[in-house]
Amino acid sequence: MNREGDMRNYVLVTGAYWVETLADGATRMLVLFYFYELGYSPFTIASLFIFYEIFGIVTNLVGGWLAARFGLRTTLFMGLGTQVLALAMLGFAPQAWLVVPYVMASQAISGIAKDLTKMSSKSAVKLVVPAGDQSSLYRWVAILTGSKNALKGVGFFLGGLMLTLAGFQTSMLILAGVVLTALLVVSRLMHGHLGRPDTKARFKHMFSNNRAVNVLAAARIFLFASRDVWFVVGLPVYLETVLGWSFWQTGGFLAIWVIGYGIVQAAAPGFVRRRDAEGGAEPDGRTATWLAFVLAAFPAAIAVSLTVHLDPTAVIVVGLIAFGVVFAMNSAVHSYLILAYADNDRAAMNVGFYYMANAGGRLAGTVLSGLLYQWDGLVACLWASAICVLAAAALSLLLPSKTPRPTRTDDELALAG
User: For the chain, what percent of residues have pLDDT higher than 70?
Assistant: First the structure.
């Protein structure tokens, strides 16, 4: 396949990933608000997403192996197809079926779909960037990752708006139709293979024996738990019940936050390169450490402000924006470090292991978000967030103080972000 053909395929797979991301974000808001409106407790709502995160862990663990073994085209089609199935399960189900076990099963399928599609799209970057051009490849991946988060934010807004205008099941059918259309378009227009399958790929290579990768993965667990422990369930429920916001207002606010987060994340690599060009050092373990310590101050400050009864709307809006900026920078540094730490001959496997840890942090944060909010409200979630960030900072102290500069393969850079 020539470079022009690779670019064509990359545009198609990226477009499909954007559609899937919109649908995934909208589904999250639809499920959360619909079941809260039915009277489910915050912890029960959080449990609806447990299988989504658990199967995300499994998919991230085996995703690199599946792509290596069967090719990216196969995993892309699998991801889109399973997302259509997950949405159709909720759209066509009789009302009596919309109970916790059934929705958990649907969300498990949705989690598999999201990570298969994400892995396929990020891996496809290496097909369109000249071999050895690590700078361009890193920039492309950062832009893709930032755009993904921005579109997920748009999906949050769409979910709240669609629930208000069309209702739960009609919205699910609309989303299923959009994703199915993307699948049909991509299958019709994509030519050739998206990468070359490697029948010699072994699953055992997924587990890392690189100390720096393992420490970074552990820090990543606590970093993402610190976000989701108050963002996934506690914050949306607080905005809707305590502050009295409507579904679409809450979805819109969360959408703006995630879009801004994506913009900061996409711009971070350019900032790092400018510092390097001016004589500064690239990020290392010390950078991740001080950013985490700074980040811990924000959920703690928000919790104290709410406890002393400052204006909750102003506290949440200002605090969440500040938290998002520093969190995005911290996440971007982690993404750079996994590129530097990954072993050349096992890069895809190292990064897959890293994303498994990422999903593990989201799982822990999701469960705790519902449990802690039900126990003692948003303040409890915020203190848990601060503790998680401090744990990430402590682990970051164990990272190498100097970042190695290995000759990185395309796989390393294409799969990270």
Answer: 76
- Please answer whether residues 365 and 229 qualify as being in contact, where contact means their C-beta atoms are separated by less than 8 angstroms: yes
More confident site: 371 or 346 = 371
- Among 250, 209, 205, smallest CA distance to 232 is for 250
Environment class of 318 (CB within 10 Å of its CB; exposed 0-12, middle 13-18, buried 19+): middle
274 CB burial (10 A radius; 0-12, 13-18, 19+): exposed
- C-alpha neighbours within 13 Å on the C-beta side of residue 347: 18
* Best CA proximity match to 30, nearest among 180, 175, 245, 183: 175
Q: Which of 350-361 are b and which e, b meaning 16 or more Cβ less than 10 Å from the residue's Cβ?
A: bbbbbbbbbbbb
382 near 87, Cβ under 8 Å?
Answer: no
Widest distance between CA atoms in the chain: 64
CATH number for the region 209-405 comes to 1.20.1250.20
The pLDDT score that the predictor gives to residue 124 is 67
Q: In this predicted model, what pLDDT tens digit does every residue of 24-69 receive, in sequence order? A: 999 988 998 888 888 888 778 878 888 888 888 888 777 766 766 6
Count of H helices and E strands in the chain?
14, 0
Instruction: Give the DSSP letter string of 74-135.
Output: HHHHHHHHHHHHHHHHHHHS-GGG-SHHHHHHHHHHHHHHHHHHHHHHHHGGGGTS-TT-HH
For residue 398, pLDDT beyond 80: yes
Which residues, 6+ apart, have CB-to-CB distance to 338 below 8 Å?
A: 213, 216, 350, 351, 354, 416
**Alpha-carbon distance 189 to 251, whole Å?**
34
Q: 1-195: what fold?
A: Growth Hormone; Chain: A; (1.20.1250)
Residue 298 has what pLDDT? Answer: 95
Is the CB of residue 22 less than 8 Å from the CB of residue 39? no
Selection from 54-58, 116-120, 235-239 with the highest mean pLDDT: 235-239
Cα–Cα distance measured from residue 218 to residue 213, given in angstroms and rounded to the nearest whole number: 9
Spatial neighbors of 310 by CB under 8 A, at least 6 apart, are: none
Highest mean pLDDT pick, 52-66, 87-101, 264-278, 335-349: 87-101
Over residues 173-181, the mean pLDDT reads: 96
Residue ranges of the chain assigned to CATH 1.20.1250.20: 1-195, 209-405
